[in-house]
Amino acid sequence: MRSLLFSSLLLAGIPSLPAETPPAPKSIEHLVSQTLTTNPEIRFYEAEVAKAKADRSTAGRQGNPTIDLQVGKNRVYGPDGSSDGLAFSASLAQPIEWPGRLGLRKAIANRDIMLAELGLERFRFHLASRVRVLAYSLAAQQDVATAAKAVAGRYASLREVMVQREPAGIAPQLEIVTIEAAALVAESSAAKAAVAVQQALLELNQLMGRRADTPLVVLRAAFEMKSAASLDSLLLAAMQNHYDLRIRQAELEQQGFKVELAKNERYPTITVGPFIQQQNAPALENQSVFAVGVSFPLPFWKNGKAAVTAAEARQMQAQSSLSTMQREVERQVTASMLLFQTQQARLVLWKNDTMSKFSNAAELADRHYRLGAVPMATFVELQDKYLAAVEAINETQIQALEAALSLEALTGSPGSLVILTTAKP
């Protein structure tokens, strides 16, 4: 709990306990790389790929031959007496699949491998995107908390000075109340930012496979946003590269093979093999039989029609699922593009030094208000607007990053819209 409290206080801009050593700041891309290495859920998807490949190694093989041994006692009766001897039989049988059946099973197994690999690729992509959003949000909310604490500190310092002056009259008393109220608002903003930081921290640690209370400091990074292609180009890319659509397409292809396999399995598997039968009666005669046996099931009760009908129904379901997913992806791409363009247009309006300009103005107003050169209304307005601007800019940047990464995920084109640049110290 102490580590958890330390990380919360550190990221919120509150002085940490002296006994704790602050963790080294980490870049966002370093966190992404570390998460892709240590995330425990990735092992699950990797195991699915290994299982599918293991199943593929046996899907195209003939069934194992079977050997049948029988041993007994042979008793022969005749006019001249009876005789006892040994009787045994041995047979070796090899099941032979109907032509084309093994090829269909191979094709189905290949699609299982493709589905498992697509699942792993999709999870890694979304995991990396989620880590980038969480890490950037953590750093952004850390800046908001720092700004809110700075504003609240100015209000608290100014209130102490005003109280020491023993103001007389209603105007100075109202000014003190105004300062106190503004300080409460600033402290509330700092608390909200600290909660947002802690939530992002907990989820990041979870994704990285670490204890939830592990401290973490993220280097604030800038990102460059590229212009999106036309809607038609994005929709075409989504139809070709969207992970869920590729999975649905592979499932549809696999279901087609399953329909053909169900039709093929209506024909019986033939079992062929030699056998020997030996009967010994020493006093009378010995008898040996060498032959080749053939066996196959008769389709009286189960002729395979129900299996074919069920496979065809599942194929229709797969086709319907693919069509539904295509319409859903079209809607998501259109909505994400509109959101991306809106947030991008908002970011263009702000210059790189916007936040530093507001910060300098808030500090300047504080100094000149103490000198009596700036009225109370201007001082409070600048402090509040500075804090509101920091919150708005950071919120817009987070939303823009989410929109860009979402559009990249929908079109299956990582790095096509947003590039994280060198982290700021």
Structural account:
This protein has 425 residues and is α+β, with helices and mostly antiparallel strands. It has a single domain (2-62, 97-266, 303-423), classed as Outer membrane efflux proteins (OEP) (Up-down Bundle). It contains 10 helices and 6 strands; from the N terminus they run αααββααβααββαααβ. The strands form 2 sheets. The chain has a 4-stranded antiparallel β-sheet, with no helix packed on it. A two-stranded antiparallel ribbon has the order 3-6. β4 and β5 (285-295) form a beta hairpin. 23% of the residues are buried.
Q: What are its keywords?
A:
alpha+beta; 425 residues; Outer membrane efflux proteins (OEP); four-stranded antiparallel beta sheet
Secondary-structure topology with pairs:
Layout: H1 2-11, H2 28-38, H3 40-59, E1 66-78, E2 81-96, H4 101-164, H5 170-207, E3 221-225, H6 231-241, H7 243-264, E4 270-281, E5 285-295, H8 305-348, H9 354-370, H10 376-411, E6 418-423
Antiparallel strand pairs: 1-2, 2-4, 3-6, 4-5
Helix pairs in contact: 1-5, 2-4, 3-4, 4-5, 4-7, 4-9, 4-10, 5-10, 6-8, 7-8, 8-10, 9-10
Query: Which outline best applies?
Result: elongated
Task: Return the CATH architecture.
Answer: Up-down Bundle
* Annotation field: number of helices: 10
Unreliable segments of 5+ consecutive residues? 1-19
User: Strand content of the residues, in percent?
Assistant: 5-15%
Order of helices and strands: HHHEEHHEHHEEHHHE
Would you tell me which CATH topology applies? Outer membrane efflux proteins (OEP)
CATH superfamily: Outer membrane efflux proteins (OEP)
